[in-house]
Specification:
- By secondary structure, the protein is mostly helical.
- It has 7 helices and no strands.
- It starts with a helix and ends in an 11-residue tail after the last helix.
Length: 143
């Protein structure tokens, strides 16, 4: 209702109205409301930034989590995943996913594991190798 009246009033009348509003002085309650609104906006921005930073910290460069994610997508049994995790732990691999890059690397790490640990499930390692690298050609098969 006020918008149509202000829109058609001449510019000088609008300026007089604005000047009259500010000439009367302000109330502290209005200033406090404005500062409270600004503080609320800053608080919301700080919370959003904190959440973004937390998510960003969890995502990158976590080799163990990446390895577990890869193992989950390979269709291995729980026992087979545990065996590979145990192998990576016993060998103290900084980046355990390297075991899954090729059949040759897998065999090298399995042989190294046999030298480090006892009671290696050799049959299970062969089954894991066949499962993981079922369609991957060996270096000898490549042209």
């Amino acid at each position: 209702m006020i918008a149509p009246l202000v829109a058609f009033a001449p510019l000088s009348e609008r300026m007089e109205g604005i000047r009259g509003h500010f000439a009367g002085g302000g109330r502290w309650s209005g200033v406090i409301v404005v500062f409270a609104a600004l503080a609320g906006c800053l608080l919301v921005l700080a919370v959003v930034q904190h959440v973004r930073d937390t998510v960003k910290r969890r995502e990158p460069d976590h080799p163990g989590r990446f390895f577990r994610t890869l193992l989950g997508g390979l269709g291995l049994t729980v026992r087979q995943r545990r065996i590979l995790q145990r192998m990576a732990t016993d060998l103290r691999l900084e980046h355990p996913a390297v075991v899954l890059l090729s059949r040759e690397l897998f065999r090298e790490q399995a042989a190294a594991w046999e030298g480090v640990a006892r009671n290696i499930p050799a049959r299970e390692l062969v089954a894991i190798e066949q499962r993981v690298f079922q369609s991957a050609p060996t270096a000898k098969e490549l042209p």
